[in-house]
C-alpha cells in the first residue's frame, strides 16, 4: 500500500459539518485588487476581435463548401473502381464512395447555430438527402445511403436492388 502522508488528527467530522453556506468572493475586481494587491484587468472584446472571428468562420465555411463539390459533380470512374472492389469482395459491409470530414461550428458566420445537417445545407446549398439522391441517380441497381458522426459525412452503397 502506498503511503499517503501524515493524518491530521485535529480534524473531525464534527468540525467539518459545522461549516455552512457557500464560500465565494464577492465584490468588484477593483475591490479584489485593493484587498490582495493584484492587478487583474477585466477581459475585453474589441470590434477587431469579433471581425477576425467572423472572417475565420467564413474561411472555414469556404473550405467546407469546396468539400461538397465532389458530390455535385461526382467522378463516375472513381465510384466504379470502388464499387468493383466492393462487389469482388462479396458485398461485405458497405462501400464508402465519399468521405467528407466536416464539423459544424458552434456558430456560423451569419450568427446562426446549426446542427451538422443544417450546416451541410448552409455551406453546400443542398440538403444531405439531395446529395444522396444525386449519387443514387447515377448508380442504377445500387442502394445508396449515408452515415455521419460529429466530424464526418459519408455517402455509401450498402446493397443492391433486386
| Major sheet description | 3 strands, antiparallel
Q: What separation lies between the terminal Cα atoms?
A: 66 Å
User: Biggest sheet, strands in spatial order?
Assistant: 1-3-2
Number of helices: 7
Give the overall pLDDT as a whole number.
83
- Rough outline: elongated
Structural class by sheet pairing and helices:
alpha+beta
Jot down its keywords:
alpha+beta; 162 residues; 7 helices; three-stranded antiparallel β-sheet; single chain
Structure description:
This protein is α+β, with helices and mostly antiparallel strands. The protein has one domain (47-160). It has seven helices and three strands. The chain has helices at residues 13-17, 29-36, 47-67, 69-72, 76-88, 116-124, 128-138, and strands spanning 95-101, 142-148, 152-160. The protein has a three-stranded antiparallel sheet. The longest helix is centred in the middle third of the chain and has 21 residues, at 47-67.
